[in-house]
Amino acid sequence: MRTGAEQRAFVGLGSNLGDRALAIAEALTLLHRREGVAVARVSTLLETAPESGPTGQAHYLNAVAELRCRLSALELLTALLDIEERLGRVRMERWGPRTIDLDLLLFERQVIETPALQVPHPRLHRRRFVLAPLAEIAPWVVHPVLRKTAAQLLHELEQG
Q1: So where are the chain's domains?
Q2: Which of 50, 51, 93, 123 has its CA 20 to 30 A from that of 131?
Q3: Which numeric CATH code is attached to 7-123?
Q4: 82 annotated active-site
Q5: pLDDT tens digits, one per residue of 7-34
Q6: What are the distances in angstroms from CA 55 to CA 21, 97, 100?
Q7: Can you tell me the distance from the alpha carbon of 155 to that of 61, in angstroms, rounded to the nearest whole number?
Q8: Of the residues 20, 34, 103, 127, which is catalytic?
């Protein structure tokens, strides 16, 4: 592992092409094998209809993983993009179908806004398919901008 301090990160995983559960499992395996990264917890899989993008897409399987890592947020993002590429992700259209999608949702309590990376994920609080699995494994985790827990954000979203 790297010599940096261990950080806690949460990553959203999704797939709606091919063997969706296998793609998520392979992504988790590749994450765990990455130097400086350990998968601490993973939510159950949640099947959801696409919320945006082209019509006619297959349903997604989604999950959230808690990672312990000694990487910076940008290094972790690079690792996530590498894993997407290794698993055949092709970016043809925004919110289009994908073999795997890995989103860095939270990185400790950091707020990062660069052209390459936004943390917390800018749509985290509006996506049930992310909040439900996040609240399952870490209901206490706090959104560093909104200052609400995952459980609170999910409750508010479900109340409409």
Answers
A1: 7-123
A2: 93
A3: 3.30.70.560
A4: no
A5: 999 999 999 999 999 999 999 999 999 9
A6: 22, 10, 18
A7: 21
A8: 103
Helices (H), the chain: 20-33, 73-86, 128-137, 150-159
Q: Is 34 a catalytic residue?
A: no
The one catalytic residue among 19, 41, 70, 98: 98
Dist. CA 124–CA 149, nearest whole Å: 12
To the query of whether residue 101 is one of the catalytic residues in this protein, the response is yes
- 3-class DSSP state for residue 156? helix
Q: What is the pLDDT of residues 74-131, one digit of tens each?
A: 999 999 999 999 998 666 665 557 889 999 999 999 999 999 999 999 999 999 999 9
Task: Give the pLDDT confidence of 45-85 residue by residue, as tens digits.
Answer: 999 988 876 777 889 999 999 999 999 999 999 999 999 99
